[in-house]
């Protein structure tokens, strides 16, 4: 991680000291003294350092070396420095920047928890609906399709139908569902990601009717594993899954 | 007043930092030498302690925690390399302290 920052310096006060003698040229009347303070600038000012003084003489045109400061110059520097104080704004970055990051962390935590709670509630609702299916329940599901061999070592699902499935009846371990007329078919060459935004909403919008031919789904595997598996399996049938379930019988 | 931005030497061989006065330590030549000497001594102590730890670890086995640079040194040159690296740093630091001490002594004598 790279931080780009600046070291800046703030001029607190500059005073002429006509009574002082320059230790460099031994002339009186040209000494000026300034009190400055460094701080770090990263997004805002922060970490002010201790103050320091710089003196110069207008007679000789030189700055006065720190090792050459005599007693009178040091005392004048101390008295000027005592009238200055570090402004609060030099600490601004230390408050504003951590506060910003804290806000981001709090927001991420809050929305993450809210999302997690929503997901858990949906999952609970889904489990409750799957445990006791009633005619009219709508499942957002895919039937798993069939397994196709790609090469010696791998296989993929093909003809995996994503659609709305409506429960039309139940008998023993069989839950009879009919598929909606709007479908998306996932193949090994062109797999579908059902988690993209609006995927199911589009299917819901396009579904205008349900097929007449019911499919029998195993209730046991639905409850136990969340599978959407045909009870009468064909060769190479893959188990599908139910993404969510709703019970709003007036809707479709 | 001249610019305080570029640390270039002027006619006295002084840099901008030499014109800053922040307290009694700014007037003496000793503080840089004392601080660099203390830091160098601390580095030598760390070098010795780590050398001792690594030697003990090699003799007795078990596990030891190392920083990435220490592990790299150990893999490249064995037990000696990391302490030698620290001692080199200590020598360079102390040399810098001596240089700064001489520099200030020269400025004081101007």
Describe the model.
The complex is a heterodimer of chains A (252) and B (110). Chain A has 252 residues and is an alpha+beta fold. Helices cover 27% and strands 33% of the residues of chain A. Chain A contains four helices and twelve strands; from the N terminus they run ββββααβββββαβαββ. In chain A, the strands form three sheets. Chain A has a six-stranded antiparallel sheet with strand order 10-9-8-5-12-11. The longest helix of chain A is centred in the middle third of the chain and has 40 residues, at 92-131. Chain B has helices spanning 30-60, 68-77, 81-109, and one strand at 20-21. Chain B has one domain (27-109). Helices cover 64% and strands 2% of the residues of chain B. Chain B has three helices and one strand, in the order βααα. Chain B is an all-alpha fold and 110 residues long. The chains are: A alpha+beta (252), B mainly alpha (110). The A-B interface holds A 9, 32, 34, 50-56, 63-69, 74, 77 and B 1-2, 4, 12, 14, 18-23, 26-29, 104, 107-108, 110.
